[in-house]
Design goal:
The complex is a heterodimer of chains A (about 230) and B (about 220). The longest helix of chain A is centred in the last third of the chain and has 16 residues, at about 170-185. Helices cover about 25% and strands about 25% of the residues of chain A. Chain A is globular and about 50 Å long. In chain A, the strands form 2 sheets. Chain A has a 6-stranded mixed beta sheet with strand order 5-6-7-3-8-9, with helices on both faces. In chain A, strands 2-1-4 form a 3-stranded antiparallel beta sheet, with helices on one face. Chain A has helices at about 45-55, 95-105, 115-125, 140-155, 170-185; strands spanning about 10-20, 20-30, 35-40, 60-70, 80-85, 160, 190-195, 205, 230. Helix content of chain B is about 80%, strand content about 0%. In chain B, α4 packs parallel to α7, α7 runs antiparallel to α9 (about 170-185) and α7 (about 125-155) packs parallel to α10 (about 190-220). The chains are: A alpha/beta (about 230), B mainly alpha (about 220). The interface between A and B is medium-sized, with 33 and 30 residues.
């Protein structure tokens, strides 16, 4: 599926400041292909910010993110799937039209048979029978599943998932676990922000500390961007 | 190109579905043009003289109607994040969205203008000149408008901010659009002179608009 030799995603001494407030500092991580990294920590610890930083949507205040063994012509974000809190779906378009758009948009210039990819994606999340329904009628869980179908329809080595279990029922969580395992064993890597276990076998865990209460510019701010990787 | 045509098709589809903005513009155009004779009274000679200006003003206001949702919807549902992350240059994606917006809202205004021209007692020459100038000029309105749409999204203020920002920038387009139409009807300036400047304005805004809008959107993500 993805031709990855020895891919490695590295974050070095990352710091994040949002709205003048220090969210975290001195965060480092290293994830090799076939591995998953879980970001845990209390609300406001910067899990989503770190994911958006890897995706390239926020510039790091300090430090840098590099990808070894990836396509040197592309940025980390261009080789990643980002599933955030929001589901990028248009209520006026049908399930198939929504997924076809993202498949065509994310595939870029490569000539592929989108219909087959879209069908495969919908099949994988168990939504093939809803293909012609406008997305406006979907429930929260179904919307989330359609977002995950996008991830499955377009192969990319890095998956950035922000609480992917939200609104999913037990069967869908089980299905998500299955596709994550397939992705990892195919040589991909996953970074997921989560509050509960995702059911992955031996994931690394990066625990983000409680947010600092001080302002970013004050030197007396408590430094609690703790890094604690446990295997 | 596949990615850009996907954006075009998606935006065009949303606009013509229920809740889209395509037909609203034409209805608003019809309302504005119909109201004018009520305001100035049944003076056919006067209507004929100011008809092209009324059509241009109506088209200008109508083209701004659906514009403030151009990026706001994509921002609210997270689509903009994926568009910013993706490989196609943001400038080209903005241009594709602007083009889809013009085809679904600008072009119907151009097509409706001959009928509305009859309401205003315009001669055939004036009607064809208005249609031609609107066809060339309305893309400029859209491309100037996308900058305002991006700014309204960045500042998280929709609605009234957009016309306030955009309308002053559209003044040159309005001046040369109406001037070209009047030149075709009454002279003494040849039609070509203001019409060529109108074409130049459209080409310029087609280049500057997407770059300015893309820069605004990138800045707004920080």
């Amino acid at each position: 599926m993805c031709e990855i030799v020895a891919m490695k995603l590295l974050g070095c001494d990352l710091g994040c400041v949002r709205g003048g407030r220090r969210v975290f500092r001195a965060i480092s991580f290293s994830i090799a292909a076939r591995n998953a990294l879980l970001l845990t920590g209390p609300n406001g610890a910067g899990k989503s910010s770190l994911l958006r930083m890897i995706a390239g949507l926020i510039l790091p205040a300090e430090g840098n993110i590099t990808l070894e063994g990836g396509d040197p012509e592309l940025s980390v974000g261009e080789q990643s799937h980002y599933v955030g809190h929001l589901d990028p779906l248009k209520p006026a378009l049908t399930v198939t039209e929504n997924l076809t758009f993202w498949t065509r948009f994310l595939n870029g210039a490569r000539h592929v048979d989108e219909t087959a990819l879209v069908e495969r994606g919908l099949e994988a999340v168990g939504m093939a029978d809803l293909a012609r329904l406008p997305a406006g009628y979907l429930s929260a869980g179904q919307r989330r599943r359609l977002s995950l179908a996008r991830v499955l329809a377009v192969p990319r080595p890095i998956w950035l998932l922000d609480e992917p279990n939200t609104a999913l029922d037990a069967a869908s969580q089980e299905r998500l676990r299955g596709v994550m395992h397939t992705h990892l064993s195919g040589g991909g890597l996953i970074v997921a922000a989560t509050h509960g276990p995702l059911g992955l076998v031996e994931p690394d865990e990066l625990r983000l500390g409680a947010p600092s209460t001080g302002r970013a510019d004050s030197s007396s701010a408590r430094d609690v961007g703790v890094m604690d990787v446990t295997q | 190109m596949t990615a850009l045509s996907a954006v075009f098709v998606r935006d065009a589809r949303i606009a013509v579905r229920i809740g889209g903005g395509a037909m609203m513009g034409v209805l608003f155009f019809l309302t504005v043009v119909t109201l004018v004779p009520f305001a100035i009274g049944p003076d056919l000679a006067l209507l004929r003289r100011i008809g092209p200006a009324i059509l241009w003003l109506g088209a200008l206001l109508s083209s701004l109607l659906a514009l403030d949702r151009l990026f706001a919807n994509d921002h609210e549902d997270g689509s903009l994040d994926l568009i910013l992350m993706a490989r196609p240059p943001l400038e080209l994606v903005v241009a594709a969205k602007a083009l889809a917006h013009w085809v679904t809202t600008g072009l119907p205004l151009v097509l409706a203008s001959p009928i509305l021209g009859l309401f205003l007692n315009l001669e055939p020459t004036a009607i064809s000149a208005t249609v031609l100038t609107l066809l060339v000029g309305t893309p400029a309105l859209t491309f100037i408008g996308v900058v305002g749409a991006a700014l309204a999204t960045a500042l998280r203020r929709g609605g009234l901010l957009l016309p306030v920002l955009v309308l002053p920038l559209t003044v040159p387009v309005l001046i040369f659009g109406v001037a070209a139409t009047n030149a075709a009807v009454t002279g003494p300036v040849p039609f070509d002179t203001p019409f060529t400047i109108l074409c130049a304005l459209t080409l310029m805004s087609g280049v500057i608009g997407p770059f300015a809008a893309a820069a605004t959107l990138r800045y707004s993500m920080e």
